[in-house]
Design goal:
Elements: H1 3-15, E1 38-45, E2 48-56, E3 76-78, H2 89-94, E4 96-101, E5 104-108, E6 115-121, E7 128-137, E8 141-150, E9 161-163, E10 165-166, H3 168-176, E11 193-197
Parallel strand pairs: 2-8, 3-8
Antiparallel strand pairs: 1-2, 4-7, 5-6, 6-11, 7-8, 7-10, 8-9
């Protein structure tokens, strides 16, 4: 895989995404994508990138029911253990993917008073990639999971874990290399992260305003 090929797939995601597999549902686009929605992904096959979409909640091909009947929480998988888990081991060997994103949300605080944060790497590219795994099931289409790892130092105060974030230079190693260094993959953006609090997000909310910086109001206390 060459830099030109990686760049061409990146531009295609931005400009020409109708080049997806014809039987794949359209992606859900926006600033508030949630598990079970359809996301864009790229895979490697026959020496070339393939653009498609997948349902963001992994269902292994060994499961014979409807996707909605799969009850395990599998929209994320730990990079440390995914290759050894029966649910993900086949995909780790044969079905790796990358998923484009501009950032992601994480929450801090107590239940009922959670504060969302928008987190993204500093970069010159229009987006980065999440490392993922996917599955394909007849009659149900593709589903995927996003790999997670211990959080980079800059953002570990927000959450102990983060998605595995890849730059263009990381994509080839993830998609083609059977022996991935799990401690190194996803560390390209170390000391290159940016993050800020954003306004509370409801499930139906969308739009660019969701990722704009927001200062939460100070908590008021009383003494008697």
């Amino acid at each position: 895989m060459t830099w030109a090929e990686i760049y061409s797939i990146q531009r295609a995601f931005l400009e020409n995404f109708e080049m997806i597999e014809m039987n794949a549902p359209p992606a859900d686009l926006g600033y508030n994508i949630r598990p079970t929605q359809q996301v864009r992904m790229a895979t490697l096959g026959n020496g070339a990138f393939n653009m498609s979409t997948a349902r963001w909640w992994f269902v292994p091909d060994s499961f014979h029911g409807a996707s909605k009947d799969w009850k395990a929480t599998t929209f994320n998988a730990r990079i440390e253990t995914a290759s050894d888990k029966p649910t993900f081991s086949k995909a780790w060997k044969n079905h790796r993917c990358v998923i484009p994103a501009i950032g992601y949300y994480e929450w801090t605080g107590d239940k009922g008073n959670k504060q969302p944060w928008f987190i993204a790497p500093k970069m010159n590219e229009p987006f980065f990639w999440f490392a993922g795994l996917y599955s394909e099931r007849k009659g149900e289409g593709a589903s995927c999971t996003i790999l997670t790892r211990p959080a980079l130092k800059q953002i570990e105060h927000i959450h102990a874990r983060s998605p595995v974030m890849l730059s263009c230079s990381d994509v080839q190693s993830w998609l083609e290399n059977d022996h991935v260094d799990r401690e190194v993959l996803g560390t390209t953006f170390e000391n290159r992260m940016q993050f800020h609090t954003v306004k509370p997000i409801k499930p139906k909310d969308d739009g660019e305003s969701l990722i704009e910086p927001y200062d939460p109001p100070a908590q008021m206390g009383f003494a008697f």
